[in-house]
Amino acid sequence: MAKETNSDKFKLQHLPSLIVDTFKAWNADDPFRLSAVVAYYAILSLPGLLVIIINLVGSIWGIEIVQGELTNEISKALGRDAAESIQTMMLETQNGNKSTIANILGFATIIFGATGVFYHLQLSLNQIWQIKPDPDSNFMKMLIDRARSFAFILVIGFLLLVSFLVTAAISALNGYIRSVLPDFILYIAFILDFLVSIGIVTILFALIFRFLPDTKIRWKTVWIGALITAVLFVFGKFLLGLYFGEADPGSTYGAAGTVVLMLLWVSYSCLILFFGAEFTWVYANRYGLGIKSSSKKNNNKQEIGSA
């Protein structure tokens, strides 16, 4: 879907038309199919992600504390039953009663599985930004993509650790604030916690937009798109928590309810992420910033979507 390039600078009154163009482009890219694919691979990647994140952050914060924090966050998003099922999965992943060969094979399988969701997220973003696959891509390209995906897991672990530290610090100060300072200061602490969440998610989305797709994109475009996506994601996560808590859509599926809930949550979250990616693409093309393929053959210095 082609967009006209406009060299004018962004103005607030442009936002409604940007949103309209974003929705049209988002709807044209069949986001429900793309989000379903990523959700499927997210389920397959979940055990590997849990192993890596828990051990990475747990080596600093403490494994039991990290498991507890993750369980609390999952409970807020998906409900208590889903959180208990995933907690059981966490405990199973920590079972170390295996032979050396089994551990090596298991570690390789974990790495491959954990990077799968980011690999397919990369493919989806390439499609949204109209990045044509490199005809000369080979096995080495796939290994590089998998290594890049693993780097994102490490980034998530670091950001998760920062989030835990900030949340713990704010929680520790709450008691002191209640006893010494006026009650309205608590609202300031809540707003600060919210802004920190927005900031951490913005950084994550900025890194995803900048480094995951096979593109060359300017940081100016990245930060604007990442901020919009982060705000939508945080509010969307709150609304999804209300929906899952009240409607309990997984209850219809019995024992498979937890898997269904995770599929739905990841799928809905990806819809928000892809909308943010579409906004980034529309913004870049409207204001002449451009999103260019990083492939040597495909990078002809033409803006994506200008043809």
Structure notes:
- The chain is an all-alpha fold and 307 residues long.
- It has 9 helices and 2 strands; from the N terminus they run αααααααβααβ.
- It has one domain.
- It has a two-stranded antiparallel sheet with strand order 1-2.
- It is globular and about 55 Å long.
- The relative contact order is 0.16.
- The N terminus and C terminus are likely disordered.
Reconstruct the topology from this structure.
Layout lengths: L14 H14 L2 H31 L1 H16 L1 H14 L6 H29 L10 H42 L3 H28 L3 E3 L1 H29 L9 H30 L4 E3 L14
Antiparallel strand pairs: 1-2
Helix pairs in contact: 1-9, 2-3, 2-5, 2-6, 2-9, 3-4, 4-9, 5-6, 6-7, 7-8, 8-9
Strand content: under 5%
The backbone outline, from C-alpha atoms, is globular
User: How many β-strand stretches?
Assistant: 2
Low-confidence parts, pLDDT < 50 over ≥5 residues?
A: 1-5, 299-307
Q: How much is the average pLDDT?
A: 75
Distance between the termini: 9 Å
Taking strands numbered 1, 2, ... along the chain, how are they ordered across the largest sheet?
Answer: 1-2
The rounded Rg comes to 21 Å
Please outline the major beta sheet: 2 strands, antiparallel
- Could you estimate the helical fraction of the residues in percent? over 70%
Number of helices: 9
Order of SSEs: HHHHHHHEHHE
As for the number of domains, it is 1
Kindly name the structural category.
mainly alpha
